[in-house]
Write a structure and sequence with these properties.
Layout (H helix, E strand, L loop, with lengths): L1 H54 L7 H7 L3 E2 L2 E10 L6 E8 L6 E8 L3 H13 L5 E3 L3 E8 L2 E8 L4 E8 L3 E8 L3 H8 L4 H7 L2
Antiparallel strand pairs: 1-2, 2-3, 3-4, 4-9, 5-6, 6-7, 7-8, 8-9
Helix pairs in contact: 1-3
Amino acid sequence: MKSIMKILGICLMVFGLNSCLGEAKEKLGKAKKQISNTSKLVNETTKAQDKIEKLKNAVPLTNDQLKGWLPENLSGMKRTAFKVGRVGAYQVNSVEATYGNLDDKKKLKVSVIDGAGPIGSMMAAGYGMLGNFDMEEEDAVKHRQTVEVKGIKAQQTYKKKSNDTQLMFAYDERFLVTINAYKMQPDETWDLVHKLDLVDLAEMAE
């Protein structure tokens, strides 16, 4: 009995030591990650300042240009509504559109803000930083992560119960794009994003 108790005591000591070592490794890992994230934040802030300087004197696209860019159909989905003009108190040019079909519950909302000008440039810089920090979190309701698909780095949120997807990213370091897809998984949402002619939008701004 004493031998068994001694063995159990040794085992508990070993487990305790492993636990302490594991905890120390975990804390060291977190500290390294915090230092890495801080360094990355400094770098991203510097880049953001450069983007602001580049865009603050740029000429925003006109309402007619933004409206003309919007497709009337998107992969079989009809444009059911649109809005073009300046966004609230920020006074930055933007365009919004909704796509869907009456016989289908799927719906796509596209929102694009032109980051040109003094206010728009700061918004574009901040928006661009969203996709530059690798992150992932998941619970019973949603799965949010940083992803890169065909050269576009975005913050992607998938709501499990409602089967909705949201994408947020800066395109060409200027255009702030938000996609809300209802009854669509991420892959299907990205397929629709790539059917939007974002290249043409960027070329109009040159």
